[in-house]
Specification:
By secondary structure, the chain is an alpha+beta fold. The chain has one domain. Helices cover about 25% and strands about 35% of the residues. The protein is built from five helices and 21 strands. The strands form five sheets. It has a nine-stranded antiparallel sheet with strand order 2-3-4-5-17-16-18-14-15, covered by helices on one side. Strand 11 and strand 12 form a beta hairpin. The protein is elongated. It starts with a helix and ends with a strand.
């Protein structure tokens, strides 16, 4: 009898330890996932943002401009936005094209969510835009979802882990794509690169349309979908110095917009005359902001997803 009771006691103790161990393992896994995808990790803060915002407010007050829901014009900036729909039924695609001309390339900037650089720091595109007095904005490359790439923002180097083909915006108002592993960050800064975007792939290079995306290497982060299918898209293109095209495609919404393939997306930029074009973060991130409102309809739900960063225009 004592032997049976002892055996039962050992079994109960073993079961208890197994349950405790399982709970601890699950808790550890949940913490690792939360740390990777949810918990904010601030590496640095952009302290000059408020100064720039104050200057921008003063400048904006003194600038004479005309605008409506789709257009903006001043001595420094011209923005014209078109809503385009193609196809019908289940094949309908809805996208927005912003044609932007700048007198001064410094009117094109980038901003981080909460004015902080790090991981899992996010805000809606519209919120970041409003915090920075933007006239126009699109979501950026969602740098915070990765730990690699070469990241230069507003002339400051924040990350230097060469990995992929990126896009560079220069002080003279031009744009070029480059292989991060073939040119150093010091060379980029020396050549007056103001902003880099590390996502991809390249859509148009030196006036040539990129047509084969079958061998394109992309990130395999949690939640990413195949780049070959029709999806919401965001991209930037350059026709000539200080003349940019921004395109945001809505998708995954039956009867409104199915999204666009990369090949079709690249052709949009090429047909618009872009000499360079680059794909940015898409899916639920794809957002275009203009004059206090979200122009597109993210995922057909009128609801923005938080992002790490934006590109924006302001006086």
């Amino acid at each position: 009898m004592n032997y049976k009771n002892k055996k039962k006691g050992i079994l109960k103790e073993t079961l208890y330890l197994a349950i405790v161990a399982s709970v601890l393992i699950i808790a550890f896994i949940l913490y690792i996932l939360a740390d990777r995808y949810l918990i904010e990790h601030v590496e640095s803060k952009v302290y000059n943002s408020n100064i720039n915002s104050t200057i921008s407010e003063e400048t904006s007050d003194s600038v004479k401009s005309e605008s409506d829901d789709w257009n903006y014009s001043s001595d420094n900036i011209t923005i014209n936005i078109d809503k385009v729909q193609t196809g019908s039924g289940s094949d309908i695609i809805t996208y927005f094209v912003a044609d932007v001309k700048l007198k001064d390339p410094s009117n094109l900037l980038s901003a981080f969510a909460k004015n902080e650089f790090g991981r899992n720091i996010i805000e809606p595109t519209s919120q970041i835009a409003e915090d920075n007095n933007a006239i126009f904005a699109i979501n950026g490359d969602y740098y915070g979802f990765r730990s690699d790439g070469v990241l230069i923002r507003n002339g400051t180097l924040y990350r230097d882990i060469p990995t992929r083909t990126s896009a560079a915006l220069y002080k003279d108002g031009t744009m070029q794509t480059f292989n991060e592993e073939e040119i150093s960050s010091s060379e980029l800064l020396a050549s007056s690169v103001v902003n880099t975007l590390s996502f991809g792939p390249v859509l148009v290079k030196n006036g040539e349309l990129v047509e084969d995306f079958g061998k394109v290497a992309i990130d395999t982060n949690f939640g990413n979908r195949s780049i070959q299918s029709s999806n919401p898209r965001t991209g930037i293109g350059m026709i000539e110095a200080n003349h940019f095209i921004f395109v945001v495609v809505d998708g995954r919404s039956s009867g409104y917009s199915k999204g666009m393939t990369l090949s079709a997306f690249a052709k949009v930029f090429s047909d618009l005359g872009c000499k360079e074009a680059y794909n940015l973060d898409g899916g639920g991130s794809s957002t275009m902001y203009f004059m206090g409102r979200v122009v597109n309809n993210p995922l057909g739900k009128q609801s923005e997803r938080g992002v790490s960063d934006i590109l924006y225009i302001k006086e």
